[in-house]
Amino acid sequence: MKEKIFRNFSLKILSALCAIVLWTIIVNIYDPTMGVTISTVPVQLINTESLTDKGYTYEITDGSKISVYVSGPKSVITDIKAADIVATADLSRITAFADYADIDVKVVKDGKTLTNVEVTPKTTAVKLDIENRVTQQFDVGMEVNGTEAEGYVVTKQSVSPSTIKITGSSTTMQRLRRLKPSATSAMHRIISRVLYRLFYTMRTAM
Predict the structure, then answer these.
(1) What's CA 202's distance to the chain center, in Å?
(2) Which among 135, 152, 132 is positioned nearest to 144, based on CA atoms?
(3) 3-state DSSP assignment of residue 152
(4) 8 Å CB contact between 75 and 29
(5) Which of 19, 102, 122, 126 could bridge across to 67 with cysteines, CB 3.0–4.6 Å?
(6) CA-to-CA distance for 50 and 70, rounded, in angstroms?
(7) Residue 185 phi/psi, 5° resolution?
(8) Gap between the Cα atoms of 190 and 143, Å rounded
(9) pLDDT of residue 126
(10) Contact at 8 Å (CB) between 144 and 154?
């Protein structure tokens, strides 16, 4: 039995190698390997609660959309669109000393991950700006500009709620404190327009 197996063994090995080479040539002739770069692929952040539950806020500073190089059989590659590429960044992998999360990419068609293609992101990580989450209370003021409609007079001014709470990053809260006078003036103008429209509507309805 062994003699039959090992008879012309080198010739059998050579035949197998030739068959593999021939099959590879045929496959590449009829369905050659090709590659394509797909741009503006959005990156989805997952496990964001790993930061927010600890009292942090985050903002993507780089890597929200990336370019991806996909290679594989031509018959498969030509049918791949940006919507078929799933790029994710797991925020649970971020440590206290890092401000980035690695990007994982895959191609999903009809709910199935393609295994016969190779996917390489040209941007390998999402860069984040991570800060402490702060909640502050601001007073809401009101002023009436202009003159009342004919037959009306403003006798009392009030706004509800009189205070609002805003939650954001510590940097955002500092900017709000610096811009508070301007922001309040803008709010006054908005409220004044609303009151004027209310008076005008009441007058025309009478």
Answers:
(1) 46
(2) 152
(3) coil
(4) no
(5) 122
(6) 31
(7) -60, -40
(8) 10
(9) 95
(10) yes
